[in-house]
Each structure stands twice: as structure tokens, then as C-alpha cells.
């Protein structure tokens, strides 16, 4: 019984001690704020990238897809990719207030550096095509994820084919 009382009293003392008045530090460090982008900037990479799922779904519904695919070690656009990008460009022209991140990807084979560069070449090819269709460059941001964000896991041709892609992501 004595042990129970002692344990109970200790618990109460610890609880009350934890509620004691805290003395504020002499100097409070400033809260670091993220940099604020200049909305009037012409640099397409200067604005915050925030995905817009509802508009993304509208792009897919009206353009047919937000993704184009590539062959192994390729970054040239085939006829199917051009058709998809043409539909995406038409959607972007009909929605002049949206921007897009053109995100290049590669499969897991090859070095990180090689795949990063290949993803960028793929994204640039898609961006250049969208620009040729009338989409202003200021509304497009290029990102390469290389092999870092696979959509399909696996070390086989089926998975690799799904990961060799460019995705147009609607952003604010």
C-alpha cells in the first residue's frame, strides 16, 4: 500500500512540475519564411509549384492523357506523342491562367546522371512542341526526375516502358 501511495504521489508531483511556468528565452530566433516569388517575374521557375488535381483531371479528360512515352534511350517525339501534346496544347490555350510542369522520367537502367539528363531532354522535347503549338514559354516549367520517381516498379521491359515518360502536371 505504501508503494502505491509513493508512486501516486510521485506521479502527481511530476505532473504538477511539468505544468510549471516556462521562462521565455532572452532572444527568440526569427521564424524562417520561404522565399516569396515575384508574380511579375518572367522567369518560369520563379513561382511556387503547386499541383491542381481538379484541373489535372480536366486536362486528362479533354486531352486524352497527361503522359507521353519514349523508347529506350530516346527523346524524340513519335506521332502518338505529338497527337497527345497537340491536344494538351489546345487545352492549355483554352485555359490561359494555368501553368504546367513538364516532368521528364527515365527507367532504372543507367546512371543517375545519365537518366537525369535523358529526362531533361525528354521534357525539353515536349516543352518545345507545346511552344510550337502556341503555348507561351512563360507558362511552362521543365523538371527532370530521371529514374527517381518510377510509376511502375520492376526490372523488366513492361515496367521500364511505363517509366520512360513525360508527364504534363498542371500547376498554379
The share of residues in helices is: 40-55%
Oligomer: single chain
Shape: elongated
- Which regions have little confidence, pLDDT < 50, spanning 5+ residues? 22-26, 28-47
Give the N-terminus to C-terminus distance in angstroms: 66 Å
Gyration radius, rounded: 26 Å
Number of helices: 5
Sheet with the most strands: spatial strand order: 1-4-2-3
Number of strands: 4
Order of helices and strands: HHEHEHEHE
- The secondary structure category is alpha+beta
Biggest β-sheet description: 4 strands, mixed
Q: How much of the polypeptide forms β-strand, as a percent range?
A: 5-15%
Mean pLDDT value: 82
Describe the overall structure.
The termini are far apart. Helix 4 (112-132) links the parallel strand 2 and strand 3. Helix 2 (53-63) packs across helix 3 (79-94) and helix 3 crosses helix 4. 42% of the residues lie in helices and 14% in strands. The chain is of the alpha+beta class. It has a four-stranded mixed beta sheet with strand order 1-4-2-3.
What are the key terms here?
four-stranded mixed sheet, alpha+beta, 42% helix, 172 residues, 4 strands
List the helices and strands and how they pair.
Blueprint: H1 2-18, H2 53-63, E1 67-69, H3 79-94, E2 99-105, H4 112-132, E3 140-146, H5 157-163, E4 165-171
Parallel strand pairs: 2-3
Antiparallel strand pairs: 1-4, 2-4
Helix pairs in contact: 2-3, 3-4
Quick summary:
The chain has helices at residues 2-18, 53-63, 79-94, 112-132, 157-163; strands spanning 67-69, 99-105, 140-146, 165-171. The chain is an alpha+beta fold and 172 residues long.
